[in-house]
Amino acid sequence: MSSVRLAAPLIALALAACLPLEATKYHTVDPVVVVHGASGDELGVSTPYGVVFLGRTAKSGRIEFTAWFGDGPSREEGVVEPMGASVFATESEILLPSVALCFDSLPAGTEVMVRGRRGDEPFEFPAVLASDPRVEGVLLDHGAELDQLTDAELGAGVFLVEPARPMRLVGLVSGRLELDGRRFVTVLGPEDLWHLVVHRRNTERPRRWVYRDDVR
What we know:
This protein is mainly β and 216 residues long.
């Protein structure tokens, strides 16, 4: 489900067919994860509070997921935990490449980066935050690259990339909507991802991480 809340009716649009995107590699750490659910694969992002995803293919039980390290992919196992507000999470026994969450209030026009995976190949492209007075939540202005995302690529990460700062996760691509002929891409954003932080703080489970040399 989309994380935005609407004060007016909307038309939810199906995601369009996909064309290959040229991948660029601005960062050495790749926090994008592919979750292998019972009904298929979906994208997620590894954070210090666990791997967060939309739960489109798995909402409970044990799952497997693939994370990418400097030497390639690693298949891990975890248990799905519902966080509330359409947020689901899991954890692994090893420390994964991860990215911090961004809880800043970002204005419309802020440039962000959308990152995901298409099979074993990463993709990323720039996008711009948008706003509409009828919508509470994070929106992206519709663009050609976003139009190429498929249903399977919902859950792609939306990142804030700033000079001299590590990138931070703004949210996960969650769908599309149209209002009075203007098209947007919806994002499950900070207001929803906060459930992940609260859940982890309340749980306070000590973890004994298994460290890898290529994760700092």
